[in-house]
């Protein structure tokens, strides 16, 4: 028989000893907040092009893993740049090439503002998981780290 005391004990044990119940959605929220605060120019978050792109990739990957509204938001951001690259003008381009192109667009141009590389990074992070292969391995690596942090 399950008692309220057993349920409470199971919940505390599942929460983890260090960070409590963070989970992938909580990590996605925190990553998104750091990204937006960096874009807004918070003094404690020094954001440059590479940090914005990297955090965008992590946010996009975690958002797809979190599912729900997070996944819808990241996939919505991802649709426009991915459709431009894969739109048919350039021929039959696979998702691996789209992921590579989005990564190049994220890190190679000399962006004056940090929002564009962050949004392109989100799009790249979403595309990595869909492309499979090496891209999928990188995506799974980020998800494993997120799951490990969420279990702490």
TrEMBL record:
Transmembrane annotation, as ranges: 12-40, 52-71, 83-107, 119-143
Domain of life: Bacteria
Keywords recorded for this protein, A-Z: Membrane, Plasmid, Transmembrane, Transmembrane helix
Keyword Membrane: yes
Identification of the protein by name: Uncharacterized protein
């Amino acid at each position: 028989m399950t008692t309220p005391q057993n349920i409470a004990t199971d919940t505390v044990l599942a929460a983890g000893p260090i960070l409590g119940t963070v989970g992938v959605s909580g990590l996605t929220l925190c990553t998104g907040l750091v990204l937006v605060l960096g874009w807004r120019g918070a003094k404690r978050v020094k954001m440059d092009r590479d940090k914005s792109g990297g955090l965008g990739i992590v946010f996009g990957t975690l958002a797809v893993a979190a599912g729900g509204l997070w996944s819808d938001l990241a996939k919505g951001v991802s649709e426009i740049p991915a459709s431009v690259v894969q739109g048919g003008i350039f021929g039959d381009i696979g998702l691996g090439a789209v992921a590579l192109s989005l990564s190049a667009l994220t890190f190679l141009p000399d962006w004056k503002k940090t929002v564009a590389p962050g949004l392109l990074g989100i799009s790249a992070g979403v595309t990595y998981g869909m492309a499979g292969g090496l891209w999928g391995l990188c995506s799974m690596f980020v998800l494993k780290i997120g799951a490990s942090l969420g279990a702490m």
